[in-house]
Structure formats: structure tokens, C-alpha cells
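Lab notebook: predicted structure, single chain.

Context: the supervisor wants predicted structures on file for every construct in the current expression panel, including those that have not yet been purified. This is the next one on the list. No modifications to the sequence; it matches the entry in the shared construct table.
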Amino acid sequence: MEDLITIRRQDLLAIVEMASDRSAAKFAQIAGLGKSDMISQSKAFQEFGESFVKRMIRQKEITGDRRGDGNTSKIIFSRSKLQVLKKADSVATLK
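Prediction complete. Output recorded below exactly as produced.
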């Protein structure tokens, strides 16, 4: 049996708007028109909260890309994906 999710119209609109913003940012990045969407792990912790980012990693909602060789190289995440996950998480916790 599938889970049924009930969502308010305004929350759905906010999610759709966030997704369209993410698509526009991704297009601009691919076209070379905008700055990179990627942020470091430490910046992700600052902007979204360390516990939130770690929970999304544990739940396999997001994965970081390691830039460079070895265990000490920088890990980066997509800011727009974290924004969408944060919005979805806040909508889910309103229930």
C-alpha cells in the first residue's frame, strides 16, 4: 500500500516554485551563465544545519561529491537540492 500525503495548496506551490528555481539555476550553470550551485560541506552545515545535512545523508536523500584525492579533500553538495529538501522537510513537519 502506498503512503498518502496531504499537503496544503500554498505548501505545494512553494515546493513547485522552489523546483522551478532549481531548474533555472541548473540551466544557467550548464549554459555558463550563473555561478556554481555547489557548496562545501562546512558551508552546507552553516546554511542548513549540521544535523539536517547529516540526516539527509543518512537517509540517502543527498550525497556529497569529493573534490580531489584522499580522505582530506573537500566534500561539496548542491545548494539547490538542499534548499528543496529543507523546504520539503519543513512542510512535512507542519503536520
